[in-house]
Amino acid sequence: MDVVAPLVFVVLAAVILMGAVKIVPQGREFTVERFGRYTRTLKPGISFLTPFVEGIGRRINMMEQVLDVPSQEVITKDNVGVKVDAIVFIQVIDAAAAAYRVTNLDFAITQLTMTNLRTVVGSMELDEVLSQRDQINSRLLGVIDEATSPWGVKVARIEIKDLQPPPDITNAMARQMKAERERRAVITEADGEKQAQITRAEGAKQAAILEAEGRREAAYRDAEAREREAEAEAKATSMVSDAIGSGNVNALNYFVAQKYVDAFAKLAESPNQKTVIIPAEMSALVGTIAGVGELVRTAQGDGEAARPPRPRAPAVPPTGA
Asked: Which residue of 91, 151, 199, 260 has the fewest CB atoms within a 10 Å radius of its CB?
């Protein structure tokens, strides 16, 4: 009997100690109740309670949680049934409110999200629902966050996870997308052909301009060459006329010999000429060339001593054909 009493005392002391000392893990908060009434909230760490008077009420998860909203069929504004589901990210910021103001927090938020999802999607047409997910998420977030604020919950974000239109609507949308892409392809091809034609026209225009400028430059240079040639011819004729006027017959012989030699050269260069007939009066041509030489020596003898004239070449007797 003496051994049992101390043992009972030790066991009772251990039970009391275990009930009085509470360790709260990180990311959790415990509510404390005194005779069933909420008194305070225990933060992460070690805390002490009054034995037999205070106890732990609710253990609340303070970390961000993800709630999966079940899929449901919603009728849009243009009477199209769409299957919609979503996910909700929540975080408890007031453990006492989350514990004592709503019976089942997760279930309440899920049902609230489903009802508001039907309201938001039902007020929009199908094309808006498919193309404006961000707007749906924003509207849902504002409504759900305001509704859950008294429960000590902060709704971080809501995301539409999936949208499934009916199969016939999906097929119609696929055909519409294909037709739109084909239309864009035709427009793009037409624009490309248009640009190609414009580029070719611009190239032809530039080529014509350059060709015209080339012809103008060539004509200008030809005219300038003919002008120089005419000036030279006029100057030569003037010199011959002056020489003839001064009584020098050799100048006339030079002029005639030049024309004669040019005509004979053209006759010899003719592509259809196979036989060249040499004139019989070659002595006259030789004499004319000698006169030309005399004229040149006379022109170069300005200020120098006159040189004795070179003997004329003997006349070549005419030869019969």
From this structure: 199
Give 285-296 pLDDT, tens digit per residue.
Answer: 555 555 545 544
Burial class (CB in 10 A: 0-12, 13-18, 19+), 89: middle
d(CA 280, CA 255): 21
Q: Coil, strand, or helix at residue 215? A: helix
Q: pLDDT by residue (tens digit) across 301-316? A: 544 444 444 444 444 4
DSSP codes joined into one string, 91-104: EES-HHHHHHS-S-
- Say whether pLDDT at 270 is over 90: no
* Residue 156 three-state SS: strand
| Identity at 312, one-letter amino acid code | R
Angle at CA of residue 15, ends 14 and 18, nearest 5°: 85
User: What letter would DSSP give residue 317?
Assistant: P
- Locate all alpha helices (DSSP H) within 153-269, ordered by sequence: 167-245, 250-268
Q: What is the pLDDT of residue 306?
A: 41
Half-sphere exposure of residue 245: CA atoms within 13 angstroms, side-chain side:
6
Torsion of CA 44, 48, 49, 55, to 10 degrees: 30
The single-letter code of the amino acid at 97 is A
